[in-house]
Design a protein that fits this description.
Elements lengths: L11 E2 L14 E5 L9 E8 L9 E3 L4 E7 L1 E6 L2 E6 L3 E4 L7 E4 L6 E8 L4 E5 L4 E6 L2 E5 L11
Length: 156
Protein backbone atom coordinates (compact mmCIF):
# COMPACT_ATOMS: atom_id res chain seq x y z
CA UNK A 1 0.00 0.00 0.00
CA UNK A 2 1.43 3.39 -0.93
CA UNK A 3 2.36 5.64 1.96
CA UNK A 4 0.42 8.92 2.11
CA UNK A 5 2.66 11.95 2.61
CA UNK A 6 0.45 13.89 5.00
CA UNK A 7 2.86 16.84 5.09
CA UNK A 8 2.42 17.32 1.32
CA UNK A 9 -1.39 17.52 1.49
CA UNK A 10 -3.31 20.80 1.74
CA UNK A 11 -4.69 21.82 5.14
CA UNK A 12 -8.26 23.11 5.14
CA UNK A 13 -9.44 25.62 7.73
CA UNK A 14 -12.69 27.46 8.05
CA UNK A 15 -16.21 26.14 7.72
CA UNK A 16 -19.01 25.69 5.23
CA UNK A 17 -21.59 26.66 7.87
CA UNK A 18 -23.62 29.82 7.31
CA UNK A 19 -22.53 32.93 9.22
CA UNK A 20 -22.31 33.47 12.12
CA UNK A 21 -22.15 29.73 12.92
CA UNK A 22 -19.03 29.37 10.75
CA UNK A 23 -17.01 31.24 13.39
CA UNK A 24 -17.58 28.40 15.86
CA UNK A 25 -15.08 26.28 13.90
CA UNK A 26 -12.09 28.55 14.58
CA UNK A 27 -9.11 26.48 15.70
CA UNK A 28 -10.12 23.45 13.64
CA UNK A 29 -8.16 22.25 10.63
CA UNK A 30 -8.37 19.11 8.54
CA UNK A 31 -6.44 17.19 5.94
CA UNK A 32 -8.26 14.92 3.50
CA UNK A 33 -6.42 11.60 3.47
CA UNK A 34 -8.74 9.41 1.40
CA UNK A 35 -9.24 11.61 -1.67
CA UNK A 36 -5.54 11.96 -2.58
CA UNK A 37 -5.18 8.19 -2.17
CA UNK A 38 -8.00 7.56 -4.64
CA UNK A 39 -10.55 6.23 -2.14
CA UNK A 40 -14.14 6.58 -3.33
CA UNK A 41 -16.29 4.44 -1.01
CA UNK A 42 -15.57 6.29 2.23
CA UNK A 43 -13.98 9.54 3.34
CA UNK A 44 -10.98 9.78 5.67
CA UNK A 45 -9.87 13.01 7.31
CA UNK A 46 -7.25 13.96 9.87
CA UNK A 47 -8.78 16.66 12.08
CA UNK A 48 -6.71 18.86 14.40
CA UNK A 49 -8.30 20.87 17.21
CA UNK A 50 -6.48 23.66 18.98
CA UNK A 51 -7.40 24.26 22.64
CA UNK A 52 -11.02 25.45 22.81
CA UNK A 53 -11.86 24.32 19.25
CA UNK A 54 -14.64 22.00 18.15
CA UNK A 55 -14.87 19.61 15.21
CA UNK A 56 -18.33 20.68 14.05
CA UNK A 57 -21.70 21.72 15.34
CA UNK A 58 -23.44 18.83 17.11
CA UNK A 59 -25.10 16.77 14.38
CA UNK A 60 -26.24 13.34 13.24
CA UNK A 61 -26.48 11.73 9.78
CA UNK A 62 -29.48 9.94 8.24
CA UNK A 63 -27.55 7.47 6.03
CA UNK A 64 -23.82 7.86 6.70
CA UNK A 65 -21.85 6.07 9.41
CA UNK A 66 -18.97 7.83 11.15
CA UNK A 67 -16.03 6.34 13.06
CA UNK A 68 -13.12 8.12 14.69
CA UNK A 69 -9.91 7.34 16.54
CA UNK A 70 -8.02 9.91 18.60
CA UNK A 71 -4.40 10.12 17.50
CA UNK A 72 -3.07 12.88 19.76
CA UNK A 73 -4.01 14.62 22.99
CA UNK A 74 -7.12 14.49 25.12
CA UNK A 75 -10.39 15.43 23.44
CA UNK A 76 -14.01 15.30 24.58
CA UNK A 77 -16.94 13.64 22.84
CA UNK A 78 -19.99 15.79 23.51
CA UNK A 79 -23.32 14.13 22.68
CA UNK A 80 -26.84 13.72 24.03
CA UNK A 81 -25.42 11.66 26.94
CA UNK A 82 -23.00 14.38 28.09
CA UNK A 83 -19.22 14.65 27.88
CA UNK A 84 -16.89 11.67 27.49
CA UNK A 85 -13.09 12.11 27.61
CA UNK A 86 -11.19 10.55 24.70
CA UNK A 87 -7.45 9.89 24.80
CA UNK A 88 -5.01 8.80 22.10
CA UNK A 89 -6.14 5.37 20.89
CA UNK A 90 -9.76 5.79 22.00
CA UNK A 91 -12.46 5.30 19.36
CA UNK A 92 -16.06 6.40 18.91
CA UNK A 93 -18.70 5.32 16.39
CA UNK A 94 -21.87 6.99 15.17
CA UNK A 95 -24.22 4.70 13.20
CA UNK A 96 -26.34 6.20 10.44
CA UNK A 97 -29.80 7.18 11.63
CA UNK A 98 -28.85 7.38 15.33
CA UNK A 99 -30.29 10.76 16.38
CA UNK A 100 -27.62 11.25 19.06
CA UNK A 101 -26.15 14.62 18.05
CA UNK A 102 -22.39 14.64 18.55
CA UNK A 103 -19.16 16.51 18.04
CA UNK A 104 -15.63 16.56 19.42
CA UNK A 105 -14.32 19.48 21.47
CA UNK A 106 -10.87 20.23 22.83
CA UNK A 107 -11.26 21.28 26.46
CA UNK A 108 -7.57 20.70 27.18
CA UNK A 109 -4.62 23.12 27.14
CA UNK A 110 -2.85 21.34 24.26
CA UNK A 111 -3.74 20.52 20.64
CA UNK A 112 -5.43 17.23 19.85
CA UNK A 113 -6.21 15.32 16.69
CA UNK A 114 -8.28 12.42 15.40
CA UNK A 115 -8.87 10.49 12.20
CA UNK A 116 -12.50 10.28 11.13
CA UNK A 117 -13.86 7.81 8.57
CA UNK A 118 -17.31 8.20 7.07
CA UNK A 119 -19.56 6.55 4.53
CA UNK A 120 -19.90 8.25 1.15
CA UNK A 121 -23.37 8.35 -0.34
CA UNK A 122 -24.63 10.27 -3.38
CA UNK A 123 -26.96 12.30 -1.19
CA UNK A 124 -27.24 12.82 2.55
CA UNK A 125 -29.12 14.84 5.14
CA UNK A 126 -27.64 15.78 8.49
CA UNK A 127 -29.46 17.43 11.38
CA UNK A 128 -28.10 19.86 13.97
CA UNK A 129 -29.08 19.18 17.58
CA UNK A 130 -28.54 22.66 19.00
CA UNK A 131 -29.70 24.76 16.04
CA UNK A 132 -32.81 25.01 13.87
CA UNK A 133 -30.81 23.75 10.92
CA UNK A 134 -30.27 20.81 8.60
CA UNK A 135 -27.96 20.31 5.64
CA UNK A 136 -28.68 18.46 2.40
CA UNK A 137 -25.61 17.20 0.55
CA UNK A 138 -25.47 16.17 -3.09
CA UNK A 139 -23.20 16.47 -6.14
CA UNK A 140 -23.79 20.23 -6.24
CA UNK A 141 -22.61 20.78 -2.66
CA UNK A 142 -24.20 21.69 0.67
CA UNK A 143 -27.57 23.38 1.19
CA UNK A 144 -28.29 24.64 4.70
CA UNK A 145 -31.92 25.32 5.66
CA UNK A 146 -34.04 25.42 8.77
CA UNK A 147 -35.35 22.04 9.93
CA UNK A 148 -38.65 22.67 8.14
CA UNK A 149 -36.80 23.36 4.86
CA UNK A 150 -37.28 27.15 4.89
CA UNK A 151 -34.38 29.47 4.11
CA UNK A 152 -31.94 30.60 6.76
CA UNK A 153 -31.84 34.38 6.73
CA UNK A 154 -28.38 35.80 6.06
CA UNK A 155 -26.59 37.19 9.12
CA UNK A 156 -26.68 40.95 9.35
Amino acid sequence: MPKIDIQALPVKTGSGYPAPLDREMEGRSQVRLGDPAGLTQFGVNLVRLEPGAKSSLRHWHETQDEFLVVTEGTLTLRDDHGDTPLHAGDCAAFPAGDRNGHHIVNLSETPGSFVVVGTRTETETAWYSDHDMKVAMDATGLTFTRRDGSDIEPAS
